[in-house]
Amino acid sequence: MKPQSRVFIFGLIVVGAAMLAIGILIGQFGIPDGSCSASSSPSTNTPSENETISVLMIEECQAENIEEHVRQLSSRPHLAGTPAEKENAEMLVSLWTEYGLDSVRLLPYDVLLAYPDPDNPNKVMITDNGVAVFTSALTEAVLRPEDNNTDVVPPFNAYSAQGEPEGPLVYVNYGTADDFDWLAKNRPDININGSIVIVKYGNNFRGQKVLHAQLAGAIGVIMYSDPNDYARDGSEAVYQNDWWLPDTGVQRGTVKVGSPGDPITPGYPAKPYMYRLNASDPSLPTIPVHPISYGDAQQLLSELGGDEVQNAWKGGLNITYRYGPGFTDPNRKVKMSIQTSREIRTIYNVIGVINGAVEPDRYVLLGNHRDAWVYGAVDPSSGTGILMETTRVYSQMLKIGWRPRRSVMFCSWGAEEYGLVGSTEFVEEYQKILGERAVAYINIDSAVVGNFTFGARATPLLQQAVWDAAKKVPDGETQERSAYDVWLERVPDPRTGTPFTAGIGSGSDYAPFMHRIGVPSTDLLYVYDFIRLGLSSYPVYHSVYETFYYVKNFLDRNFWRHLTVARVYLELSRDLADSVILPFGCADYAAKLQQAAQGLERNFGVKLTQNGVVLDDMKSALDNFTESAQNFEMEVSDIDLNDAYAVRRVNDQMMQLERAFIDPAGLPDRQWLRHVIFAPSSVDTYSGAEFPAVVDALYLIDDDPDQETRWNNVRKQLAILTFTIQSAASTLNDVTQL
Amino acid sequence: MKPQSRVFIFGLIVVGAAMLAIGILIGQFGIPDGSCSASSSPSTNTPSENETISVLMIEECQAENIEEHVRQLSSRPHLAGTPAEKENAEMLVSLWTEYGLDSVRLLPYDVLLAYPDPDNPNKVMITDNGVAVFTSALTEAVLRPEDNNTDVVPPFNAYSAQGEPEGPLVYVNYGTADDFDWLAKNRPDININGSIVIVKYGNNFRGQKVLHAQLAGAIGVIMYSDPNDYARDGSEAVYQNDWWLPDTGVQRGTVKVGSPGDPITPGYPAKPYMYRLNASDPSLPTIPVHPISYGDAQQLLSELGGDEVQNAWKGGLNITYRYGPGFTDPNRKVKMSIQTSREIRTIYNVIGVINGAVEPDRYVLLGNHRDAWVYGAVDPSSGTGILMETTRVYSQMLKIGWRPRRSVMFCSWGAEEYGLVGSTEFVEEYQKILGERAVAYINIDSAVVGNFTFGARATPLLQQAVWDAAKKVPDGETQERSAYDVWLERVPDPRTGTPFTAGIGSGSDYAPFMHRIGVPSTDLLYVYDFIRLGLSSYPVYHSVYETFYYVKNFLDRNFWRHLTVARVYLELSRDLADSVILPFGCADYAAKLQQAAQGLERNFGVKLTQNGVVLDDMKSALDNFTESAQNFEMEVSDIDLNDAYAVRRVNDQMMQLERAFIDPAGLPDRQWLRHVIFAPSSVDTYSGAEFPAVVDALYLIDDDPDQETRWNNVRKQLAILTFTIQSAASTLNDVTQL
């Protein structure tokens, strides 16, 4: 069924406007001239013309095209560094060239990846006096014959160390910093040192689980997906009957922490001439790590000895959860055999460009990764399908003679799954150009992970633009209301009366743009009811069961949700690329900062006061920033749109705002993160933190015997934050007033 | 005598054109409108109008005004952090306000400075069985009654540690890295560890002498100005008879190395809210350091024991130079008593702004420091007088209705002498704005240090603009030829057929602009014949004898040399502020890089080849850069000057070029220096080095037993250099092509 046939109120308006607009446009832009040189009458894109193109683009975008792309892309495994993945990159080059983009380039990088040894499979065993009595499954069971493919990579954790550790097993819940800390404080008798730990997936980034285990002295880490988090409705309500994970499913994933990108060329692009560290040099895990199914985990956990765990640590398996250490049978131990090797392979980014008509040196980037752990029908092919359809729609607009004011860059990244590798190498290679010229980066990774509502992560600067785009686009369920209305109804932010819009963490390719070079970023997707469900991901994430069948049956039967995301992608990018004045919310940033300051005071105010630390300077800087932002927005509203230098000036000021929050010195102990206001949480890379250096300085501060050093660090980080906010305010002030 | 009365051929043209121009201008700009909003016809500053203003500005500039300023400024000591210095800052605020600049601001910073204790003077003694038998002079002799003033600070080295070390004396020539290295290798019997070293001023920055001495284990450092370097023509040909240093003169100066600016707020502005390190925390000297006259040095050196020094180490005193250690009389030792204290005081920058008419968000900065060790008639008041007259000339142009296209900022810095403190704090506070908006920084410090020729240090990007300005300005000797012609004749660069133009070191306030944030910088001055004389500075540098009398009698009787420098300052700044297309030499940068690469190959090619290191990748990047620069300059020559977006685009690209050489990670072990192409030499802050990280990696490489680590570092630094050049090339490429 075509979505248009069910377009009612919202749809009628869209169609009517579109028909009218096509006529106008054919008249106006009828003869494409192919020119992209700056126009001598630069402000031709008036609001009314923008509106026409906006309607046309939304209308042109088709659900069945996306569906067909997702079907094709997920028809075989396409892991980073494999021939299938390269073929997909080349397919995009052909397609975008055929679409008539102004340029299309394939950008290779030689980077350190990791693969299991096909001749020596990874496994976890229970040994009895040294003899294996149980071995974890080497592959996930094939539950639908169509899912069978010899190119499926067995479950593994990328960048695990090699080795065959054997020892007592200890259960540490989710393996968070707090979990390890709780155990150390409350059960000092349970020795992690020299043990293998088993932890549940979820609640934080898996790399951090490994880091904390390593710091505690563990000799190996086993991860599994507990039914409480991944199979809540019983053993039957799982793939292929339902969206939950079956007991044979395993989540793959990287366990690299630290600087994203190629581990052996940190900070610089992995070009042939670049100097490379040894594969064992960088800060990759030093102990073996392996993921298993909850079916296999049950074997291990049911034999664990020691006391029963506290209630908060219990999972959903039908066993008694115990801490260990070790099994009830003292002859039994757990043993891991991990032979995953680190190899340099070539990965590919594909960059397609539409040259801007007026300001070709201003870039709006639309990005999505292409590599998948297995079939990746959700992650990332749902997004790749949308990127492909988005590109087609843009090319259609070019054909009727329209051209955006600014350049639009379509970016298909390689090797995101290993740690944002393709996008990071790109940002490293072009950091100077992008730092000066990139207007915004719009990411789509797993575009549809649920059927509840459209949603977004965004810098405060782009929130309003995302909301405005969502207001123009029909929602993915009935197409009767706007995506914005459904979002607002289902996930309201009670503090602001707007749809809840999360901050920018580090879970996908927006991270190098936002956290390294301060390019305003956002990430679009259709989500499940994450507030009610509280899941860390959709259940089959990174397993072999993430198939087209799964998407079609459990997430988006008619692909309308994909369509909604695609249309917001189109409209948001058009707005950013074509509006004379950039649609940035500077006062929104001020409001967000005030909110963050209130949060800091609420969480730490008493403790700060007790230690003689006052927030007055920071609040004063914040008030300056708020005033600067409000004055600036008034100035912008009065600007003469025909005065090119004035237009460029205020747009440059807005672009400089996000950059002003970048400290070249980086965050303490995390120099690759340079955004002083937002950063991935230091204890969970996936989630975002506000004022990260200050919050990190306060983390577990009471436990530290060296109170003076710790509190001096709090003062220092607060002073840097104060300076940074003041510095950001100055970017918005009258440009002749320092 | 007024200079105009001797203006011949060159002057006649200037005057004639000026008279004509005044008429045109009064007609055209007659009614000042006070407006600085962007014009709707932005390209009003046509070449012919530029030419008229250019002639007018040069003509308006008056030698006697500069002379009067220098006389006033040098009439009393004006050391950083003293009331006299603050009064000078306030005088500038009044003057510039009176001149009608659009805004004038006094910017205070609270920074760590250092002062001798008036009640406990610093001294160097010879002790005999613990009893002082000789004590160095506590002050410099007053040789002219006019030079007497109770505010003269006694000779000292700022940031010396306090203490009273006593021990054997060792003579280490100039105290360079090579000198200490030579002694360690050739005279291992002479133990620096536990000794006090005496070194000559000159050949490198005094802070490096202290650093090397400290690393060698010395417990104190004494510095003096040897007659070979500071009094070559005998004991009579000295102040007040000649320009050489008398035997009572002492060079003051800072011995801080490392990051410039306030030592206890590195990287951030010294605002009241900023977090401060302890005064003993930062990397300031840990041993006492003190400067003495060559009169006093003779007392110490004549009693030294040990072998006679090698010929290259001999100085100009009428004694036998010996290494030591210790005196010939074994009962005698050298003892220092240093009570200099580190104190936080307030310093002031004064910033005056003329708002740009078309691009107010582009800044041309003219800077000069204001603080002096004593009277500072040369350093910096010669420059301050010029800055003041420059400001007056600009204000006259405003009065006849002219206004530059871009904003012009006049910057008077505080506390340069302590380590570029005022300028560094300013750059740290406004790094985001300046990083994006500063077109160029033009420095004048000691504006007239000799009477030989006008000269300049400059980034390659600004060389041509400096030369072009010097072509329009009469020289300072006869006013019959251009400053350029005299410069070319007297200091030709045989490699290029142009006037020799040095690179940008770290000796003055251009350093934070150039090396921290990549603002194209230049430094203007009138010099002595440095090639023939080979001096490290003019002889009375930083002594009490640096007086107006000295300037008037030995450097520039009619102040025409000051006038020449002022006129180049005016013309160069006008060109940068008013030309539609920035007068930057991108291909000149390429040529300079090619030259630097040839130098690297000449100096290290054989050694590199022997160790399997090839320069092919770097050369290939260089060729790309050269091609990009040439293509870019062709593109620029074709540009439509009425197309504002195109004009801004190419200007932005040129501004981005110098920034592209900035690596946010900084140079190895010198993170505050971030320019990958040029840096102060790591063994001498005053002089510049090309490809500094590579050259440093190769320094004394043969002596290191760990050859593998050292050569890997060479490979790494070469790869970073290659990447940086490639990245710079990309800023000049077609903006739609990555």
UniProtKB/TrEMBL annotation, chains A, B:
Residues 166-255 form the PA domain. Its cofactor is Zn(2+). Residues 349-550 form the Peptidase M28 domain. Its EC number is 3.4.17.21. One of its GO terms (molecular function) is metal ion binding. Keywords: Cell membrane, Dipeptidase, Glycoprotein, Hydrolase, Membrane, Metal-binding, Metalloprotease, Protease, Signal-anchor, Transmembrane, Transmembrane helix, Zinc. The chain crosses the membrane at residues 7-31. Belongs to the peptidase M28 family. M28B subfamily. This is glutamate carboxypeptidase II. It comes from Strongylocentrotus purpuratus. The lineage of its organism: Eukaryota, Metazoa, Echinodermata, Eleutherozoa, Echinozoa.
